[in-house]
Amino acid sequence: MPVKRVKISLFMLTACAAALVAVITVIDAGSTDARRGFMKEFEAIITAVIGGCLLTGGYGSAIGAFFGAIIFGMVTIGLTYTNFDQDWFQVFLGGMLLLAVVFNNVIRKRVTGER
After folding, report:
1. Residue 31 exposed, middle or buried by CB count within 10 Å (0-12, 13-18, 19+)
2. 49-59 burial string, b = 16+ CB within 10 Å, else e?
3. Co-location of 72 and 107 in the same domain
4. Contact 46, 70 (CB under 8 A)
5. Do 30 and 79 lie in a common domain?
6. pTM for this structure?
7. Is the pLDDT of residue 54 over 80?
């Protein structure tokens, strides 16, 4: 029974956190838009993979995801200060994901001794 209670309480806590973020976003922007969070899940995946989480699962840490978020944020803010065309931003994000996946696979094979 404790597992079920913890699971339900974590879902409730996540829903409350999502509601709080939504309220803060509406207060900050003054209005709401259904597309405001468009492609944020893709950015979250990129952040986790840059931080060392494997797409296949089973490996990763919160500290790595934190540093992945820091790196992703610095690159994103850096791109806004350049004359980089914003239409190519999603292509750049895909390239970052591709490089992170290749790098993770190389490291994983080196650590586990796979060929």
Report:
1. exposed
2. bbbbbeeeeee
3. yes
4. no
5. no
6. 0.63
7. no
Residues in the chain: 115
For 61-101, what is each residue's pLDDT tens digit?
Answer: 889 889 888 988 888 888 878 877 777 777 877 888 888 88
Specify whether the CB–CB gap between 52 and 68 falls below 8 A: yes
Which alpha helices (H) appear in the chain, and where do they start and end? Answer: 2-29, 40-50, 62-80, 89-112
- Give the span between the Cα atoms of 112 and 67, in whole angstroms: 23
CA distances from 60 to 8, 38, 46, 52, 54 (A): 24, 25, 13, 6, 7
Give the Cβ contact number of residue 47 at 10 Å. Answer: 23
Indicate whether 45 and 27 sit together in one domain. no
* Same-domain status, 11 and 52: no
User: Structurally, how many domains does the chain consist of?
Assistant: 2
Question: Domain range spanning residue 22?
Answer: 1-34
